[in-house]
């Protein structure tokens, strides 16, 4: 049973082809910079050299076509025919209150996802595009939707409710939902394993930092608070999203600049965050390079891009504030986990976010942190005497998708919150 997991982000598609019988990854990869320009595919097959090729993808449908072409190609493929694929699992960002668990996709599910796509305007549309593209390429193959919001359904009411008229929740479902649930679930399970404790006895703060960014407070293995809210706009500073701000700001902008609600929404979701601060970049690699943050000569400082430096300082400061607030909410923290593209690779952001947190038990090993990237796998970056352990754990949302797909299609699905990732092999670097 080969299962294809597709994770359509705002500017990327991650994929993994997994053989359930043998419990092994057949191939995995990513198409990056979709719709941005200079897009490319990275395709990895165990035992072979990594394949990389530039290929312009203007949208998510062209990216999935490229993935399928690569999986079945003569030179780099791993399957002879798409019929080898038994089922497809799709990440869907927002399920509203209608979808609280993974489901088999049919027309009613597609309509339900469309109904809430205005709550995740950067993600639900590409999620839907991925589902439809896969259905066209593999008609009749079962497809399963795995929702980012499902993991956070354990939040208590005092965490997910807003202090607005209560009928807005009762009539319109306006509340905090949270996102990146599969990533927070996976890395928290892995952190518990590295701590040598059951997840049900661990308090963990997980930081998913990519183009989208969210923080999650996990108490005894379940989500009790998270930074994103009704939509993915709330919370930390992101690639193009503002994150937390004065709630009066949208009305102020509309009145002062004579903007429509749609124009304000577009500004806050697509023109703000790191892009808004720097005026040029969303990719933190570009920001770090232009900030010359790792070069300490006076000449370099004088020539550095001040707005890129400001963007890094603002992002790290916001992360630090959330770590502090979730530490207070949890009372006891066993570990902090950084994951996703930026969290796994931007040591300077991790260092700045954790500066001066010794009072809450965080002592960073700066040398280990600076030398840690995704390729090093699961890595402890806190000092040996740090009461709170700090890990970099590469996320594996696709593995969560695979487990849910098997459960849903076989009729054995219960609740993915109870899954223990016993076959997620640790490559922990002590």
UniProtKB/TrEMBL annotation:
A biological process term (GO) from this entry: acetate metabolic process
Subcellular location: Cytoplasm
Annotated positions binding substrate: 91
Primary location recorded for the protein, binned into one broad class: cytoplasm
Co-factor remark: Mg(2+). Can also accept Mn(2+).
CC annotations in GO: cytoplasm
Active site, renumbered: 148
Positions marked as site (Transition state stabilizer): 180, 241
Family matches, as InterPro entries: Ac/propionate_kinase, Aliphatic_acid_kin_short-chain, Aliphatic_acid_kinase_CS, ATPase_NBD
Catalytic activity as recorded in UniProt: acetate + ATP = acetyl phosphate + ADP
Protein residues bound to ATP: 14, 208-212, 283-285, 341-345
Gene Ontology terms for molecular function: acetate kinase activity; ATP binding; magnesium ion binding
Binding-site positions, Mg(2+): 7, 397
SUPFAM superfamilies (UniProt xref): Actin-like ATPase domain (SSF53067)
Pathway field: Metabolic intermediate biosynthesis; acetyl-CoA biosynthesis; acetyl-CoA from acetate: step 1/2
EC number: 2.7.2.1
One of the Pfam families matching this protein, by short name: Acetate_kinase
Keyword terms, alphabetized: ATP-binding, Cytoplasm, Kinase, Magnesium, Metal-binding, Nucleotide-binding, Transferase
Cofactor: Mg(2+); Mn(2+)
Subunit structure: Homodimer.
Function: Catalyzes the formation of acetyl phosphate from acetate and ATP. Can also catalyze the reverse reaction.
Family: Belongs to the acetokinase family.
Record HAMAP family: Acetate_kinase
Name of the protein in question: Acetate kinase
């Amino acid at each position: 049973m080969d299962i294809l997991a597709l994770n359509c982000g705002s500017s990327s598609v991650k994929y993994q082809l997994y053989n359930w019988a043998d419990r092994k990854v057949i191939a995995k990869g990513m198409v990056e910079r979709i719709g941005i320009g200079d897009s490319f595919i990275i395709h990895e097959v165990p035992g072979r050299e990594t394949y990389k090729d530039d290929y312009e993808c203007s949208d998510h449908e062209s990216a999935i076509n490229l993935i399928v072409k690569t999986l079945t190609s003569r030179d780099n493929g791993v399957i002879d025919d798409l019929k080898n694929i038994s089922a497809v699992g799709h990440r869907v960002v927002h399920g509203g209150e209608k979808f609280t668990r993974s489901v088999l996709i049919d027309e009613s599910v597609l309509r339900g996802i469309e109904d809430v796509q205005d709550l995740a305007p950067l993600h639900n549309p590409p999620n839907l595009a991925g589902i439809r593209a896969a259905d066209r390429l593999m008609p009749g193959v079962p497809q399963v939707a795995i929702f980012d919001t499902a993991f956070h359904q354990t939040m208590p009411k005092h965490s997910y409710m807003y202090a607005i008229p209560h009928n807005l929740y009762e009539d319109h479902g306006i509340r905090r939902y949270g996102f990146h649930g599969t990533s927070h679930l996976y890395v928290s399970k892995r952190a518990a394993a590295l701590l040598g404790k059951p997840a049900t006895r661990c308090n963990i703060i997980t930081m998913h930092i990519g183009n989208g960014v969210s923080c999650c407070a996990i108490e005894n293995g379940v989500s009790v608070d998270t930074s994103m809210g009704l939509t993915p706009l709330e919370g930390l500073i992101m690639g193009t999203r503002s994150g937390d701000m004065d709630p009066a700001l949208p009305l102020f902008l509309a009145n002062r600049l004579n903007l429509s609600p749609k124009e304000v929404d577009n500004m806050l979701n697509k023109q703000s965050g790191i892009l808004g601060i720097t005026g040029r970049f969303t990719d933190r690699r570009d920001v770090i390079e232009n900030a010359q943050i790792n070069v300490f000569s006076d000449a370099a400082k004088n020539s550095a891009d001040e707005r890129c430096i400001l963007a890094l300082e603002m992002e790290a400061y916001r992360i630090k504030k959330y770590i502090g607030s979730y530490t207070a909410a949890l009372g006891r923290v066993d570990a902090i986990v950084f994951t996703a593209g930026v969290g796994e690779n931007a040591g300077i952001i991790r260092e700045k976010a954790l500066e001066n947190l010794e009072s809450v038990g965080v002592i960073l090993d700066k040398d280990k942190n600076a030398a840690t990237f995704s390729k090093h796998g699961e890595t402890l970056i806190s000092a040996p005497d740090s009461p709170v352990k700090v890990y970099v754990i590469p996320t594996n949302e696709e593995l969560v998708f695979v487990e849910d797909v098997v459960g849903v299609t076989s009729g054995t699905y219960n609740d993915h919150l109870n899954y223990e990732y016993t076959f997620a092999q640790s490559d922990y670097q002590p």
